[in-house]
From TrEMBL:
Topology of the protein relative to the lipid bilayer: Peripheral membrane protein
Cellular localisation: Cell membrane; Secreted
Keywords attached to this entry: Calcium, Cell membrane, Disulfide bond, Glycoprotein, Hydrolase, Lipid degradation, Lipid metabolism, Membrane, Metal-binding, Secreted, Signal
Residues annotated for Ca(2+) binding in this entry: 197, 199, 202
UniProt protein name: Lipase domain-containing protein
Residues forming the catalytic site: 159, 183, 253
Membrane-spanning residues: none
Family recorded in the similarity comment: Belongs to the AB hydrolase superfamily. Lipase family.
Main localization, broad class: membrane
Record-annotated Lipase domain positions: 39-329
GO MF assignments: carboxylic ester hydrolase activity; heparin binding; metal ion binding; phospholipase activity
Length: 435
């Protein structure tokens, strides 16, 4: 009987230890009542590796030896969220960790500072960014004491998290490897000196995406390379009126995360072009990529480090790219050259369609009216919603944009279409396209 009790006790102890080992820690789930009352800062670090892709392990801030799966010889990527006015967990972080781990064998640490970010008082959340940065700085210093290289530290910050990343980097004298900032917060940071916000000296390499510069995001460049998706303002597919509810306020801001996730799963790539303004970009004045060598203009997202050396030599680079309304967000860029034989000049807008293998790609060039003159080649920048590997037919639609004006036809003498990445040209001579 004594032996039976001993075995039973032993089995129960083993079962408890197995359950403890397999326990998955979840991101803190608060509600609006917490945000309304206000929350004090508390930071939890959830570790994910290829050994536990979907099961977070709560990491001790001081005892790293208790986490044998935390291999400090690997890259360690911290994902730092932003302001959480409702207290709910970010819906994207699990997808984020899974895609990062599929990309590289690394440590992914989700920084859960929901206690501190969940507060209707935005100014309090901003105040907590400095405290959060100091806490995380101390943790990274402990990692360094245990053998981690600061060059192997990668911080991905969203909104307020972008500036937390900057403060951490500044605390460590810019020695960490990389910071990716996804639509850094603008309110309470715009106009701050470099020590009061993210700046290029905060890491060895800083790349920044802007998607909401006219509201919640930061307008000016902050990194070695700054990407402005769709000019950095209104994102395609996002609500245009306040009647859409909360999505009207946050859709543009949150698009930054979706675009970065799109870059991780590599369904397509977004080539970004250096330019001084979005208008010049749309006008096709910024398509020269020679300064970047054989690799061409940088691709937005995780893999932009391929251009790191040349970008560091250039100082700060401001780039633009366009996206679709839904995933996959990437568009395909062509140079479209049109020559007409109309006697009189024509002003209007072009919609181009490519056809091939039963598929269709569309590019609408309507940001401004274009002038077409007889026997004069008009160069346009056409961004198609798909990348057709084989183009069998092309059609154009010309419109003057005003139903009250006479209906004109554009008599096309020649069209030349050149893929800006594959450098393959398609020319069509002596074709006629009506309005």
């Amino acid at each position: 009987m004594f032996l039976w009790h001993y075995l039973l006790t032993l089995l129960l102890l083993i079962a408890v230890r197995i359950c403890q080992a397999e326990r998955c820690e979840e991101f803190t789930d608060l509600d609006f009542s917490h945000a309304f009352i206000g929350t004090n800062l508390k930071i939890r670090l959830l570790l994910y590796t290829r050994e536990n892709v979907t099961c977070g392990t709560l990491v001790s801030h001081t005892d790293l030896s208790s986490h044998p799966q935390f291999n400090l010889s690997r890259t360690t990527t911290f994902i730092i969220h932003g302001y959480r006015p409702t207290g709910s967990p970010p819906v994207w972080f699990k997808n984020f960790t899974e895609l990062l781990l599929a990309k590289e064998d690394m440590n992914v640490i989700v920084v859960d500072w929901n206690y501190g970010a969940a507060n209707v008082n935005y100014f309090k959340a901003v105040e907590n960014t400095h405290l959060a940065a100091n806490n995380l700085t101390a943790f990274i210093q402990i990692m360094e004491e245990h053998g981690a290289s600061l060059s192997s530290i990668y911080l991905i910050g969203v909104s307020l998290g972008a500036h937390i990343s900057g403060f951490i980097g500044a605390n460590l004298n810019g020695s960490i490897g990389r910071i990716t900032a996804l639509d850094p917060a603008g309110p309470q940071f715009t106009g701050n000196p470099p020590e009061g916000r993210l700046d290029p000296t905060d890491a060895q390499f800083v790349d920044v995406l802007h998607t909401d510069i006219d509201a919640l995001g930061f307008r000016e460049p902050l990194g070695h390379i700054d990407f402005y998706a769709n000019g950095g303002t209104d994102q395609p597919g996002c609500p245009k009126t306040i009647f859409s509810g909360s999505s009207y306020f946050k859709c543009d801001h949150q698009r930054s995360v979706k675009l970065f996730l799109n870059s991780l799963d590599r369904t397509c790539t977004s080539r970004a072009f250096p330019c001084s303004s979005y208008k010049d970009f749309l006008d096709g004045k910024c398509l020269n990529c020679e300064r970047f060598g054989a690799a061409g203009c940088p691709v937005f997202g995780y893999d932009v480090t391929q251009w790191r050396d040349v970008l560091l030599s250039l100082g700060q680079t401001k780039t633009y790219f366009s996206t679709n309304k839904v995933c996959p967000y990437c568009m395909t860029s062509y140079r479209l050259e049109v020559m007409i034989w109309n006697q009189d000049s024509r002003w209007g807008y072009i919609t181009a369609k490519l056809h091939g293998n039963g598929k269709e790609a569309v590019a609408t060039i309507d940001h401004r009216a274009t002038q077409f003159k007889k026997f004069t080649e008009t160069k346009l920048f056409a961004q198609f919603d798909k990348d057709l590997q084989s183009v069998q037919k092309m059609s154009l639609k010309f419109s003057n944009g005003n139903v009250l004006k006479p209906k004109y036809k554009l008599r096309v003498l020649r069209i030349r279409l050149t893929h800006l990445e594959r450098k393959r040209g398609l020319s069509v001579d002596m074709m006629f396209f009506s309005r």
